Amino acid sequence: MPTTDGGRVVDDLKRLAEFGRYKTGVHRPTYSVPDVAARQWLAERFAEAGLDPVIDGIGNVIGRNRHATRRLLVGSHSETQPHGGWLDGALGVIYALELVRAFAADPALAGLGIEPVAWADEEGHYGNMLGSRSFTDALSEAEIGAAESRDGKKLRLALVEAGYAGRPRERLDPARYVGYLEAHIEQGNTLGASGERIGIVDGIVGIWNFWVTVSGEQNHAGTTEMRRRKDAAAALVRLASRIHDRFAEVAGPRTVWTIGRILIDPNAPSIVPGRAEMQVQFRDTDSEILALFERELQVLVTEAERAGPCDVALAPLSKSAPAAMDPGFQLLIERAAERHAPRQHRRMPSGAGHDAQILARRMRSGMMFVPSLKGISHHWTEDTKVEDIVLGVQVFADAAAAILEAR
Amino acid sequence: MPTTDGGRVVDDLKRLAEFGRYKTGVHRPTYSVPDVAARQWLAERFAEAGLDPVIDGIGNVIGRNRHATRRLLVGSHSETQPHGGWLDGALGVIYALELVRAFAADPALAGLGIEPVAWADEEGHYGNMLGSRSFTDALSEAEIGAAESRDGKKLRLALVEAGYAGRPRERLDPARYVGYLEAHIEQGNTLGASGERIGIVDGIVGIWNFWVTVSGEQNHAGTTEMRRRKDAAAALVRLASRIHDRFAEVAGPRTVWTIGRILIDPNAPSIVPGRAEMQVQFRDTDSEILALFERELQVLVTEAERAGPCDVALAPLSKSAPAAMDPGFQLLIERAAERHAPRQHRRMPSGAGHDAQILARRMRSGMMFVPSLKGISHHWTEDTKVEDIVLGVQVFADAAAAILEAR
Lengths: 407, 407
What we know:
By secondary structure, chain A is α+β, with helices and mostly antiparallel strands. Chain A is 36% helix and 24% strand. Chain A has 2 domains: 6-205 and 322-405, 3-Layer(aba) Sandwich (Aminopeptidase); 206-319, 2-Layer Sandwich (Alpha-Beta Plaits), CATH 3.30.70. The relative contact order of chain A is 0.18. The model of chain A has no long low-confidence stretch (mean pLDDT 96).
């Protein structure tokens, strides 16, 4: 079994967090100066560990292992959310680096190779999981040409400035790997609330997004009698309220749904709103529940449209497929967790998206969670206890070894 | 009976609309260069009509009539909303000017004097009905010192630039007047929908505004289980929906209510909202209905707070008192309307605020409406048929004469 050095992992995480440090967190958007410097630093660490590093045309950093006969691809992303946490993404990359070192140090693991990877732009500054999609042939040149950041910077320009433009994009050879493994902070408080220390991800949720537009008639809030009004906001709050009620009735045990974005036009106290819009999102690992939710949403929108006096329209925005994690990988992660943290682990879905859902389309994949303090995520106060970081990397290494050794 | 010249009224309205013309409307904010020029132009017209004009320290333009023994104060405001209509306010001021001329031309009306007034800032660029409140001793120097425009310009500075600073503010001597009369466009579509041409205002609504704040807990929309959420937006849409339902049950025949402004924080599709706020407004001429609505709102907020999981707080923003128009004035306006437009008039509340509600606190006051095409208001497309403008001024003059002649 590989022996990891938890202190070295924490030191490397702290060093990586220097790139773009913001308070106790990190501000390191994809292709920013600190992000490019961090990727260079990671490539150097991969080389130090005896690998052939490559930073490809989309910014993925991969450490190639020439000598192994069986290989596991292991990693996560290295950019952060704006003013984000120091571990989100970084933890899985440094875990992968540590696995490389631990495997190399153990003669019993000869021939078993970890190839670490730091994906580019999982956080979606310019797109949606650009790096892992590029690696799995799911990102076209046309999409790259059209992509831009939220503040309007072209992806092509960002790649030129980063120095990545013109480089080939590395592509997956599935025959090269036994599979893909990713460690990540939980980003929620399920483990924290139960006092557990390791999460074995059974699936990554599909995320379905819809946009609801209510069209009424803008009017003066003093001179327009109630019976003449077509108040778009009144129709929207009624519909939103029914959506929450109905979804609660048909939800599975871990379905989540959110109406997080509501726009009222003109949103002035003395004007009857003429237009109101909202985004309705739901997530589940079960495709049938996602489809059921969509049908229920359609029914409620149709009812609202029929009830009048406003027009109500529903448009799909995006539907990502749920991704099941490999059952064999789950079992081996679970055994490793039981060895080091008996009865302090659980199987659970990932409610957030991860590069593993992209890789899972092409090969066997697995994911492991460590707890997030108070469940805080995408914020500079995000953190994880040092003992959980240290425990996690050993469980992860044991699981990787077991996966590579399994025939 | 006075004889008005409708063509002259329309010509004057068109001339006044040149000050700040915007498309077919007018952009003439209070104390802007075109507003100051328009007030000067009005003062000159008042002088031409034989009056002693004064522009006072807040920008009110008043035409003093030295000779009359019984006087009626007649007017409206002369600034406009941003990119507003050409008649809103202006119509009532030019009607007042025409009444001055029509009365002066009729020897039978000797001794009966119209004093025309163009109030400053009814539209609230710097405050709330500054001119009429100044005139009725309801505007303190402290409030003037603190007031600023929505874009942060100090009222004091605006008054200096307009050339009004340092002038005395004219104050009402109630003994000088029989009462106050104001003509205005309806700003709604009640007259238009019924084909009527004159509205006799029975009261101006009180407008009560409340701010509702829902405090929950901001969380990740993927990793936070439903049972752990405190979704402020979900609580808000449920409460807003109940407010609409409950208000509909207890409303009077002309009560109106509006939830026109909703703020969700952070208003992002994948974040459970931690905070949600809304403004709840209702209007009625009946104080008891306003008080009933406030009680119902308090009950619903308390229920929402008890139901949890979010905190819900209610804060009053403003409560203006309804203003009854003088019943005797209403009757005389109605008789004049019946003479010139039989069965094409109605008594109705004003759902919008007007200077008349301020004047009504100090003396008998009356208001008359002419129709607004399609009910459009506070927009540069606002308009009224020429024949309605012409009819309106004659009805208004007859009513004014009847009021002045009544003992």
